[in-house]
Write a structure and sequence with these properties.
Blueprint lengths: L2 E8 L2 E8 L10 H17 L5 H21 L6 H7 L8 H17 L6 H11 L19 E2 L9 E2 L6 H13 L5 H15 L6 H16 L8 H7 L1 H13 L2 H32 L12 H5 L8 E3 H8 L3 H13 L4 E2 L14 E3 L1 H8 L1
Antiparallel strand pairs: 1-2, 3-4, 5-7, 6-7
Length: 369
Amino acid sequence: MRYEVVTVEWEGRPVGAFVPAPLSDVGELGAAARLDAARAEGVLSATAVRHDPRLEAAARLLLRAEGVASSSIEAINAPADAVAVANVDPSVAGPAAEVADNLRALDAVLAQEGPLTCGDLWQWHRILMASADLDADLKGAWRNRLGWVGGPTPRRAAYVATPDDRIDALMVDLVDYANKPSHDPVTAAGLLHAQFETIHPFADGNGRIGRLLIGWTLHHHIAMAVPPPVSVAFLHDVGGYLSGLTRYRTVGPDDWIRWFASTIEHAAMSAIETLAAVGELVASWPARLENLRSDAAARRLVDQVLTHPALDVDTAVSLLDVSRPTARSALEALAERGVLRPADLAATGEPGRPRSWWVAGELLDLLAR
């Protein structure tokens, strides 16, 4: 896979910027890479959650782990309680809001139907960067300046990305390949991610959007209702992840695809183990309510916790169609029995904020592990 280093000017001095070959130029990979990708595809297909509403609801909780891990790779971290609340309460600010934006972008990715377009990528970027400190004209638009990674300036950076006047053509090629890949789905997902990171088309958020692209590819080309949380696996081997991307750019795609296939295979198997643990936890909840009346609101509310891991009184009122005192009593009853806990929002930077939210603490802690 050929590449080109072109000279661009930055503050009056020359800098070498990396321009990858288009994906349409990538030929057949080596036998070892093809075998690893085929095995990973088999594991993904075998572990996919399809057309089971209860399982799909549990599996979608794994998207929370995906969004949190993808943000963490970029050093954006927030407590699980704050993220859960920020996902439904737009008044929460700071890192929790940025992680919640990642979760909302994931939802948009899985809701997207039809062929991928540059417009979809721009929309995902606007959602992802909604709370970020980035100029408004750079949210949902290709960058119009030089981009680099790993240094204070491009002259001291680990990598200088494709010049902005080359972005359009390379992204059109990437989108065309995404819709009609010439390789198996696992290889296609790996190539799309690595190529996107190489182009680095946005001013910020490229890593997170690039990892969203993996989920989109698996969702569309393996028909996975909920792709496994690949960012969790990447987070466990950030060094392998970054060195793999470097080898993709400079040596060729085979080593990167072998690492990617192995990592995504482990992500799928880990997801199944986590889903089993979630299932056991959720199954334990009704037994904790045995001493409540059969018509108690808490008995009905516990069935909503899996899909609403952060609840306040207003949400409980809406879900149960009961009065506010009854809704509050139901929340407190679930908290007394360990299904919920008052949300700890102390780390959001909003001292004095009323503790008016409850979260599924055990569930969030399980996902955080």
